[in-house]
Amino acid sequence: MKKNGKLYIVADNQQSCRELESYLAGTSWRVSCFDDPAAAIAAVEVDHPGVVVVDLPASSVRSQLVEIASMDMDVAYVVIVPESNPRDVVELFHQNVSDVLIKPFTSERFCRAVERASSCKNLMVQNRRYREQLEKANRELEESLRILEVDQMAGRQVQHSLLPVTPLFHGEYEIAHRIVPSLYLSGDFVGYNVIFDRYMVLYVADVSGHGASSAFLTVLLKFILNRILRRHISRNDMAAMGKAPEGFIEHINRQIMALGLDKHLTMFSASIDMEKNILRYSVAAHMPTPVFVSNGDVRSLPGKGKPIGIFPDVSWDVQEIALPEKFAMVIMSDGVLEFLPGSSYREKEQFIADTVAASDTSIESICEGLGVDQVKDAPDDVTVLTIRRGY
Description:
By secondary structure, the protein is an alpha+beta fold. The protein is 41% helix and 25% strand.
């Protein structure tokens, strides 16, 4: 901080003023002398010098001048007293005086007192201004966070409105989901719909990262799926739906690679022919593996593949299985692995299988068994999707 070079000397006579001024000869201080305390008070209130030296006997006038020190935090005050009275000295320091000199003193002692008072006051002023700047920055940050929170909440409502109705019933089939975001906006997303009153198409996606950028990609997935489905519906393309989800993940991969978003995602994509009761699905590095339950038998669905958005020329296999009259299938995002018991992935996977086996396969029962409903401040987005028939 730049030093204020003005110094006022206030004494009851010109001789005292000149003597003190002589002590400062050769320094950079610009000295003004006052033998009229009233004039000094008026000048201090206007000019705010760096240091004010007060050499006045104890009186109401000196008290009036020193009182200014309690209000003017930018000016350093050095008060000269004729004898040592600890009570008076303490009182002066309580009134924000920077230093007290007791007569007699040398010129060196006087100059050191002036410089020390100036330095200390400059430091105090600097600290106060830093504190004011910090408080202002904190207020601005709080306002920015408030605006961001409002925006995030609005984005969450938009994202939530894009999710399908849960649960969805169609004939003997039921599909339901639950998403617990780690932030307001989620990088997890699900989509499902029934086409031609026969095909139930669905996906569970887990976008890398969290927040707005990941949520944006989930909106893009919703748009891509809807556009594909509208095209098939407008063309009455039953043959294409019979092959679904063939080519779906490849199409998403091309779209994301073209955008250059520096994002990747995992996905489980499937289609159920509810007339023939056939499940066709593809896995793009999605984990944990889906759990399939039928007649008391619990197993993981086979399938693997690379993540989406990293490799430009890659394809994903489509698996096909016949569905029994009564079954349940559970797909989760890897966020559940963050809070499940077990030290290894295999142990956590076994816990999921045991939980599904002990449940009634409803979304409520499975989420309760896994502890999803009790998760607070989740480190990662958590998604659970269930499909079942005959329950």
